[in-house]
Amino acid sequence: MLGFQLDAIYHTSIELEGTEYVYDGGINAIQPGSSHLGRPLERIHLGSTELPLEVIIEYLDSLREIYTPQAYDLFRHNCNNFSNDFSTFMLGKGIPEHIANMPQAVLDSPFGRMLQPQLARMVEQRKAQQGGLLGIQNGQQQANGAAASIVEVSNLQALNAALQSAASKSAIIFFTSATCPPCKALYPLYNELASDHGKSVAFIKVDISRAYDVAQQYAVSATPTFTTFVHGKQQESWAGADAARLRSTVKLLVEMAAGPSHPHRLLHLPHLSNPDSKAVLFTKVPPLPKLLSKLGPAANNAAVQGMKHFIEARSAEGPAMATLPDLPAFSDFLATSLAELPRELLFTVVDLFRCGLIDPRLSGYYAEEHGHKTILAILGAVNSNSETPYALRLVTLQMACNLFSSPLFPDQILGQAPLRTAITLLISSSFLDDAHSNVRVAAASLLYNVARENSHRRRQLKETLPEEDQVELAASVLEAITQEESSTEALHGMLLALGLLAYCMPVEGELIDLLRTMEAQGAILAKKNHFANEPLITEVGAELLGKGLVRR
């Protein structure tokens, strides 16, 4: 009936370091073989990865917004797609093609198309009843430390008691319910955060389907909802399965529980102290046929067409419906293009790459590429030539910004000298482009992304950019600020980037000495003459560099 031999209908998962990772009602981590499906009929050794487990877990976190319970599709976004993406990240290759391609092969047959509506209804019914097609639940393997760090309450009296016991530190309440698949998708992250930060933050979980009085008291009508407290005072509430916001909020709660340890935290700096700030990404996708037409016959390369299809599917139907292309093949095509294409046409390939890097699966793959050879080759092509064409420089800056779509790339940019040096040179040289304000805007955006990550690390007492790099970037952007006279957008980005470089900087050191020596406060306040309505002039110039540079 299908028109071909179908040996099996495959359900797949990835087993790593004694844990089975599977997509069903979200990404689940379970004891291998512990689900009701039992032990697998076949185990295939895909290879060995050299990636640290913490990097792998962080990559999985970045996939949770793509592999959601709602996004599950039996034919186009299923457990096999997840296994394939996960394997590609760790090993540079996916699962066997006959498994990965099986759902699409069925869908392409007349019989498969006939069955699709009925199967889709069945999947939706299962998802509504048990959170996923197969009903595999997270928490079948949960660290005792995490479980012990979370207080589960079932009524208002118990919640008040839990908050009272946490009055001397921070607290976060996770309002959930038994029929909330997005809540279940966040359980592993909440457990992890509780295990890591349970001494500084009280982690509380409330099932509002049982604790009606709590739901009424806190006006919770949707799950997941989170509410935070610091020293007994309620701070903020928000709804939605936003893993990145949950993680950043907990980190801020850890800081707030300890009290202000830096004088800058006592200043009024709303743009600089915001824990929910996002990296700047350039997400606009141009008409790809028109872009690729400039490549001539090279546009028909299978790797190029695969990337084009991925970007178009992601733009039209969302990331869940976009299957990763052959990334090693595309890397080879990029390398060949850098060596053979005329420089005035290189921007087409880099811009195509930029569009792909919007997706954290793709940027995560290149974050862990050995030696970052693909990214460094592109940056080198721009940095090595003072006559780089305008279009190539612009899309390279935008491409570098999109590296921050993955939580893995900031670690590489700040921690790996070759990549950090290339990024720094790209930013500094691009600020010198007096003729193109959008190049300066893109350079400011890239520096903002770097400075934002550096600021987060500084506040978390983690290793930051080497001080000499911070000084070089600060000097470069301060000079650019003094020269900027035409673009409000460029000035805004430059001020924000400089502010984040300086926010909570060591009170003694080369960076603060540089800002004093270059009279940064006066240089910034002078911009009022040309940009009277720019609020960051006051925030960075008067508040941060005025009060913040005072010797104590």
UniProtKB/TrEMBL annotation:
A biological process from GO: proteolysis
Phylogenetic placement of the source organism: Eukaryota, Fungi, Dikarya, Ascomycota, Pezizomycotina
Transmembrane segments: none
Domain PUL: 272-547
Record family assignment: Belongs to the thioredoxin family.
Any GO MF annotation of the entry: peptidase activity
Source species of the chain: Xylaria flabelliformis
Gene3D superfamilies (UniProt xref): Glutaredoxin, Leucine-rich Repeat Variant, PPPDE domains
Ranges for domain PPPDE: 1-120
RNA-binding recorded as keyword: no
Domain Thioredoxin: 122-255
UniProt-listed PANTHER family: THIOREDOXIN-LIKE PROTEIN 1
Protein name: PPPDE domain-containing protein
Keyword terms, alphabetized: Disulfide bond, Hydrolase, Protease
Keyword Ribosomal protein: no
